[in-house]
């Protein structure tokens, strides 16, 4: 049995945790600082974390020049639709993969993971041609379709792991109590699967929100372009960039993911299974 | 009765499906094109600086208002992903009508037949405005597939107060220093805590090959249809001089080696470096980011046997698949008339290729903020053999950049550098 950590051990633990938090959080803090700095403060020999003359000019430029508001709205629609559709498709498929043992299931799971090995640069031209034939090139629907297909293999693999963690005994107990298959799914499996569904939705949302290449290639009309494509326009040749507006736009681009995560994280806790099965 | 949880699920599914339908409606709904109405041209532009972006958008808006029968849609791309974007568009048969890119990159697309030959489409007055040496950069297999319109020369930006304090005189716009004078003046400007020069060599290949023309260093030699990399004294001269400044004379900062041009600015503004060899477009950062009271000056390009530098102009091309090539060419002729070309160059802080545009720009700016030097440098920009070599991009990435980085980090000798460059050429140009 592990003993209670000593006072020194506890202090070291907290120091390590603080160091890790700084490591993770510093880029975001620096982004925040850069977004409020005027151009001259961005090239100081000894840069400061806190802007000496904070300005909103970078935000104004980012929004007026690139219509980031419209791009963010486009991204939000595409990402939400991708997240919902991915969850709707992955939920029954992952249950079937996890619960109904067959050779086909193993092959299917292997195949979906194998599909992840293909670099999308290799696939982009065929995908573009297919979507064009279907009248879905240059549309958000085409983009959503690609994002769902792209997210599904990992979502399936992840979600079927969550399904496996739900003890079969719980489903069997519900059946013994007279619940039908649908009732078992609805009253036992889905509630316990909620953390997995949330994780899948988050994964799908964030993948779609951050995705750049498909959006760049498939969307031609400026009014339909998404946020990552709009942000890339602040970057110039050979690593040069308009740092102020880029930081301001990037800061705003991180907010929806953070809000979505904060809103959903309560659902991610999987403690509801504690004590469900004895012995 | 349908359970409440299932109803929610069904509602979510319905929302997703309806949403997808609505999103589909946001698209262009396929490739159908109206038979009546104005001709529509799609223009993929890579302008990204604030002033340049505005200049581009203003010109397109003006054209659209004056030409109701030919409407141009302005689409902004970005330099880092434009190659993949264009490749996919060309392969997919959905390329923009007008494409903004650069001479060294359009060769590949030209040879694959994606870009139209503009020889018969460009008006004579536009042709006459641009030097043949610059036209040559956008001519592939006898076809002119791009109109070169903006040039980037290598100049030297200097801290005026430090020059004055060291007794270094600023040369006239048409009288640049020789490399020996540049080194001697860098020596005068070097003292504890201050280097005469900061060579930003994070991406050294283009810079070295551009400047190598000062000593007639060509690197790529073609004989009997076969191209190979050769390194003689002419090719070695510029890298050797830069290396000597860093390690022998110690007038150039070794810490700047891993930096891009923009990375050196804090040190330059902080008085750590007195001179920055770099692109004419660096002047924009000077204007926007220099601290109040900071005095800077643009020095003309450094001279070797000549002031020649490789020109890699930005270009405007027309897609071979465009259904409206003549209208696109009309737009180009308007977009690149002397006044408009001057406005575009001013927005990007680059040098216009057109002679009259160059004159107008100097007049407009009164030659201030280095525009006199920039304009004067245009005459020395010409096509370099490496720009025409098919394997150059691969040679640059796989062999030249790592080898030059090692040489400038003092990890290999000049002879080893030469041998690595030649060997790389053999691999790529087989």
TrEMBL record, chain A:
<feature type="transmembrane region" description="Helical">
    <location>
        <begin position="188"/>
        <end position="209"/>
    </location>
</feature>
<keyword id="KW-0472">Membrane</keyword>
<protein>
    <submittedName>
        <fullName>Sugar ABC transporter permease</fullName>
    </submittedName>
</protein>
<comment type="similarity">
    <text>Belongs to the binding-protein-dependent transport system permease family.</text>
</comment>
<dbReference type="Pfam" id="PF00528">
    <property type="entry name" value="BPD_transp_1"/>
</dbReference>
<dbReference type="InterPro" id="IPR000515">
    <property type="entry name" value="MetI-like"/>
</dbReference>
<feature type="transmembrane region" description="Helical">
    <location>
        <begin position="141"/>
        <end position="159"/>
    </location>
</feature>
<keyword id="KW-1133">Transmembrane helix</keyword>
<feature type="transmembrane region" description="Helical">
    <location>
        <begin position="243"/>
        <end position="263"/>
    </location>
</feature>
<feature type="transmembrane region" description="Helical">
    <location>
        <begin position="12"/>
        <end position="32"/>
    </location>
</feature>
<dbReference type="InterPro" id="IPR050901">
    <property type="entry name" value="BP-dep_ABC_trans_perm"/>
</dbReference>
<feature type="transmembrane region" description="Helical">
    <location>
        <begin position="78"/>
        <end position="97"/>
    </location>
</feature>
<dbReference type="InterPro" id="IPR035906">
    <property type="entry name" value="MetI-like_sf"/>
</dbReference>
<keyword id="KW-0812">Transmembrane</keyword>
<keyword id="KW-0813">Transport</keyword>
<feature type="transmembrane region" description="Helical">
    <location>
        <begin position="109"/>
        <end position="129"/>
    </location>
</feature>
<keyword id="KW-1003">Cell membrane</keyword>
<feature type="domain" description="ABC transmembrane type-1">
    <location>
        <begin position="72"/>
        <end position="264"/>
    </location>
</feature>
TrEMBL record, chain B:
<dbReference type="InterPro" id="IPR050490">
    <property type="entry name" value="Bact_solute-bd_prot1"/>
</dbReference>
<keyword id="KW-0732">Signal</keyword>
<protein>
    <recommendedName>
        <fullName>ABC-type glycerol-3-phosphate transport system substrate-binding protein</fullName>
    </recommendedName>
</protein>
<feature type="signal peptide">
    <location>
        <begin position="1"/>
        <end position="24"/>
    </location>
</feature>
<dbReference type="InterPro" id="IPR006059">
    <property type="entry name" value="SBP"/>
</dbReference>
<dbReference type="Pfam" id="PF01547">
    <property type="entry name" value="SBP_bac_1"/>
</dbReference>
